[in-house]
Structures are given as structure tokens and as C-alpha cells.
Amino acid sequence: MADHRLTGVLLVGGASERFGSPKALARLGGRTLAEIGWETLAFCDERIAVGKKADGLELPFPVSDDGSEVRAPIAGVIAGLRAAANERCLVVPVDMPRLDRAALLALAEAAADVAIPQTGPLPGAYRRAVLPELERRLAAGELSLRGLEARVVMLPPEVLVNVNTPEDL
């Protein structure tokens, strides 16, 4: 990797409709999902948590508002890329507590503007170079992160498990 510096972006927002309460505050093994995600990104040179300030989540780290009325991951990815000091960002949703450093580094080391696992666009490694395309999509009301030219990195399925309901914990 030519540029070894990484920004970790933790997406803590989301309506959590299926879950019934903010996933970021759900507890697993004595820690919140937000704390687990934040710790997973500790190896990065910089960490940014992005969500909705209006949600008023009480977390042990600052949360940057995504600046959008839209509740979709694309808004958080855009906000994270805009705020990042580094070209390459690892974007992690708060509901994937089994992610680990090895899986994230595999994404970061894929030589592409976007690198994603076999399951879809998150988690993912995004270069700031894709910001104009993401901003265009959001402005046009296209809320999906799918369809970007991306390198697919095969990751162990067990690290890609996400929490959609309280039973998933």
C-alpha cells in the first residue's frame, strides 16, 4: 500500500427500525456495539464516528453529524470521507461486532478506489476520490452504495455477521 495512513469511520446512525432501539447502544459482552466498533478501528491513524447529532447518543467518543436529513449509510460515508485527513478510509457500520483488524486491513490493502467484501458495500475501504460520485448520487436521491466499481475481497463469513434484531446479539 503506497499510502499506509488510514482513517477509520464508524457509522453509528441508523433508524434501527427492526432492532427497536439505537443499535449503537446495544450491549454485547458488557460493551456497546459502538464501543466495540470504535475499538476495532483503534489501529487506524485517525478515527471518526458519524451519525445524527439529533439522535443524542451518549457515547464515550465524539460523533460528527452527517449533515444530511437522509437516513442512509451513503450520508455517513460522505460525511466521513469529507472529514477524513487521509485518502483511504475504512468504513464500518456499528452493527458488525465481529469485524477485526485483519479483515479491515485486507480491504484497505486492495488497490482500488473501493474495496468491499463479498456481502456488499459495508464494511468497505473507500478512497476520498469517490466522494464526487457519492455526492452526485445523494443529490440525485440515489441512496445505495451498490453499483460503484469495487474490488471484492473475500473475507471470512464469520467476521461479516451483522446485528439486525436483539436476538442477533
Provide keyphrases for this structure.
21% strand, two-stranded antiparallel ribbon, alpha/beta, Spore Coat Polysaccharide Biosynthesis Protein SpsA, Chain A, seven-stranded mixed sheet, 9 strands, globular, 169 residues, 4 helices
User: What is the CATH architecture annotation?
Assistant: Alpha-Beta Complex
User: Topology as H/E string?
Assistant: EEEHEEHEHEEHE
Flag low-confidence runs. none
- How many beta-strand segments? 9
Structural class: alpha/beta
Q: What this model shows, in words?
A:
The protein is an alpha/beta fold and 169 residues long. The chain has one domain (6-168): Spore Coat Polysaccharide Biosynthesis Protein SpsA, Chain A. Helices cover 22% and strands 21% of the residues. The strands form two sheets. A seven-stranded mixed β-sheet has the order 5-4-1-6-8-7-9, with helices on both faces. A two-stranded antiparallel sheet has the order 2-3. Helix 2 (73-83) packs antiparallel against helix 4 (131-139). The longest helix is centred in the middle third of the chain and has 11 residues, at 73-83. It is globular, with a radius of gyration of 15 Å. The N and C termini lie far apart (35 Å). The mean pLDDT is 93.
